[in-house]
Fold this protein.
Amino acid sequence: MKRFISIFIVTLLLVSMFSSIMTSAISFNCDVETYSESMLMVNLDSDMVVFEKDADSKRYPASLTKIMTYIIACEYFEDYDNTRIEIKESIITSLEHNGIATSGLEWHVGESLTVTDLLYALMVPIGHDSATVLADYITEQTGESFVDMMNEKATKLGCKGTHFTNPTGVFNPDHYTTARDMYIITKYAMGLPMFSKICGTSTYYLEGDEYPITTTNYMIDAGRGGEYFYTYATGVKNGTTDQGGRCLVSTAMYDGYAYLLVCMQAPYNYENDVTEQYCMIESANMYRWAFLNLQFVKLVTKDTPICEQKVEHAWDTDTILLVPETDLNVILPNDYKDSDVIIASDTDEPVSAPINKGEIVTTATVYYKGEAFTQINLVSQEDVRVSFILYITELVKSVLTSVWFLLAVFVVIVLFVVYVSISSSYSKKKKASQGNRKYK
C-alpha cells in the first residue's frame, strides 16, 4: 500500500510540474561540439531546459525503451525481494534464435530469480532477456498486453511523440519516441523505488552467480569505462541500433547542481567501423560546460513588486501591486547581466474587486535576451475591498449598454409600434362600421 501511495504522489507531483511550469530552451552560449541528432538537457532542481537540439523529432530509442519497461514492472510488483519469476527456456531460446543478445539469464534457465535481480538485469547490462521475462510474466498474470501498458503510461505522462511495440527496444519502424518524451519518462522513473540506485550500478551479482553482470554505460564505470568514464555521472541507460544509432540518457551531479541529458541518434555504423561512443563524449562535455558556465540565480522573491494591475469596483484604489507567488530561482550563465532578463505581465486587462492577499491575479513571462523561458504566477500583495456603490453602478451601466438589453428594448419598441398600428387600424375599422350602421 505504501508503494502505491508513493507512486500516486510522484504522479501527482509530476503532473503538477508539467502543467504549471512552462520551459523552453534559451540561447545560452554553448560551444560544445555535439554529435547526436536530438538532445535535451534539463536542470533537475528547477526543471529548466538549458540546451536542446531537435528535441521533438521522432527517434528510435533502442534500449532506452527499458526505462519504460522498468516503470511498468516496478509499479506492478509489490514485493521485489520475495516475488520470484521463472526463467523460461522458451524465452531464452527465442531470443537467441532471433539474434537478440542475452545478458546473463541464459545461465538461470529453469531457475527462479527475484524481481530485484531482474530489475538489475534489466537496467545494468543490455537487458533484453530480463525485459522479455518481466513482460511475459506480467502479461500472463494480468491477461493484458504489456506493450499496451507501456503506451498507456506514456500517454498518461504527457508524452506526445512516443509509441512502443516491444519491451526491449529492438528496432521496429513503429517503435519510436523523442528526446523530450524520454526526459519525461526518465524523470518519472527517477521517483520510483530503486531506479536511481540500479541505474548508478556498474557491477551486480545475480543470485548464485560467480561472475557479475556489468553496465554498458561506461560513463559510470571507473574500472572499464576508460576515456568515457566521467567522475560526476550517476546514471542512467544507453542503447544502440543500426537504425537509431547510439542513444544515452544520463545524469550527473556536481557542487549541488544536478542535470539530466538525453542524446539520441549519435553516429554508429559497425560495418564502417563507426563505433565510437559519441553520445558519451558529448554528454561529458555538456556536463562540464553546464557545471562551469551556469549558475542558480534568485531572480525575484515573493515580495518583489513586478507590476501594477488596474482594478475595478475597489473601495479606495484604482490599482493593485502584484508580486510573484513564490521565489523564482532559475539557471543562467555566470556572466549574465540584469538587463538580459525581463519579467512582463501577460495581460493588462483590469481585474474586479474583491481580491484577497495572495490570490493569483494573472501570470508573467520571464524572458532572457528576448526569449521566453518560464512563466510565474502573480498574486495580489494586499486585500482589496469592493465598493458596492461602484459595483452596482457598473452593473447597471453594463446592463443598460449590453447587447441583450438593447435588443430587448428594440423588441419592445417594435411590439409597441405593431400594437399601436393594429389598434389604430382596428379603431378606424370600428368607426367605419359604426358610420355605416348610422346611415342605414
